[in-house]
């Protein structure tokens, strides 16, 4: 089971609106949806190609198998059947999704502080 802790589920102070738009904020004035139409498969994980998140160096590492390679390669040896795992700083959800697909962990909790990455992470978890 893979859970995602979102900013909505965690109490946090309200600092008000930032003085400038966040680069991952939904873009206004575009026709249709903000969801990327392209994706790639890396280590069995479907990654939406949102260019605000998947930069050219990250895309290259995903395509050639070097993105988080040491971490993902060691997961089956480190995580045992029935383990509970907490990933702090889930980023785009790549490691958590691989962990859910390749191990028999009883529970996986992925936590990401940036609320603008949550929809992207959910897209990777599908």
Topology:
Blueprint: E1 2-5, E2 39-42, E3 45-48, H1 56-64, H2 69-78, E4 84-88, H3 94-102, E5 107-111, H4 118-125
Parallel strand pairs: 1-5, 4-5
Antiparallel strand pairs: 2-3
Helix pairs in contact: 2-3
How are the strands ordered across the major sheet? 1-5-4
Q: Which descriptor suits the 3D outline?
A: globular
Distance between termini?
13 Å
Low-confidence stretches: 28-32
Radius of gyration: 16 Å
- Proportion of strand residues: 15-25%
Structural description of this entry:
The chain is of the alpha/beta class and 126 residues long. The model is unreliable at 28-32 (pLDDT under 50). It has helices at residues 56-64, 69-78, 94-102, 118-125; strands at 2-5, 39-42, 45-48, 84-88, 107-111. A hairpin with a 2-residue loop joins strand 2 (39-42) and strand 3. The longest helix is centred in the middle third of the chain and has 10 residues, at 69-78. The two termini are 13 Å apart. Helix 2 (69-78) runs parallel beside helix 3. It is globular. The strands form 2 sheets. A 3-stranded parallel β-sheet has the order 1-5-4, with helices on one face.
């Amino acid at each position: 089971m893979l859970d995602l802790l979102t900013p909505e589920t965690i109490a946090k102070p309200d600092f008000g609106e930032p003085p400038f738009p966040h680069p991952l904020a939904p873009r206004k004035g575009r026709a249709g949806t903000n969801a990327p139409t392209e994706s790639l498969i890396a280590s069995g994980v479907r990654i939406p190609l949102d260019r605000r998140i998947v930069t050219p160096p990250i895309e290259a590492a995903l395509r050639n198998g070097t993105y988080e390679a040491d971490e993902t390669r060691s997961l089956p040896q480190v995580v045992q059947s029935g383990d509970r795992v907490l990933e702090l700083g889930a980023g785009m959800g790549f490691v958590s999704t691989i962990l859910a697909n390749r191990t028999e962990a009883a529970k996986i909790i992925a936590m990401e502080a940036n609320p603008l990455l949550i929809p992207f992470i959910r897209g990777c978890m599908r």
